[in-house]
Design brief:
This protein has about 140 residues and is an alpha+beta fold. About 40% of the residues lie in helices and about 10% in strands. The chain has 5 helices and 3 strands. A 3-stranded antiparallel sheet has the order 1-2-3. Helix 1 packs across helix 3. The longest helix is centred in the last third of the chain and has 21 residues. The termini are far apart. About 10% of the residues are buried.
């Protein structure tokens, strides 16, 4: 069952021990805006899927991140989110993966659910139909020799 969150409130997501980000909900408006982001549209046609994924994730994060905790500069001073800081954060592989898993993939699960077959009714052959034509006469036994 699809659960609708009618509050549409920002949520905190843990990306690593001691690191969490507050993000806007992953809405249609946010995804559409990200798809038309200048950085996403500037990706060359021959770019790899990985390059596209990174560019899209960074563009999405720049729109979605509201606040964060546990992120600082080289001197361990806390810093506020900015486009450059968000991009630098997603350049850290475990953070990128956590962002993809805890935020992006949850929104894309519904997209994947549209592409699978409906489940069959209960029972091993319930709802199944024959695909082969019935044989007109029995097959002759093989010769032994």
């Amino acid at each position: 069952m699809l659960t609708l969150d009618l509050t549409n409130q920002p949520r905190w997501h843990d990306l690593a021990p001691g690191v969490r980000v507050q993000l806007h909900p992953l809405t249609t408006a946010l995804m559409v805006a990200t798809r038309s982001d200048a950085a996403v549209e500037a990706i060359p046609e021959d770019a790899s899927d990985e390059e596209r994924a990174v560019a899209f994730a960074k563009a999405l994060a720049r729109r979605a991140v509201l606040s964060w905790e546990g992120i600082g500069d080289a001197d361990d001073n806390p810093i506020e989110p900015s486009p450059d800081a968000i991009d630098a954060l997603l350049d850290i592989w475990p953070i990128f993966e956590a962002f993809q898993l805890t935020y992006v993939s949850k929104g894309l699960l519904l997209e994947q659910e549209k592409n699978v077959s409906a489940s069959s009714p209960s029972g091993p052959s319930a709802g199944a139909s024959a695909t082969a034509k019935r044989a007109k006469r029995p097959a002759k036994p093989a010769r032994r020799g």
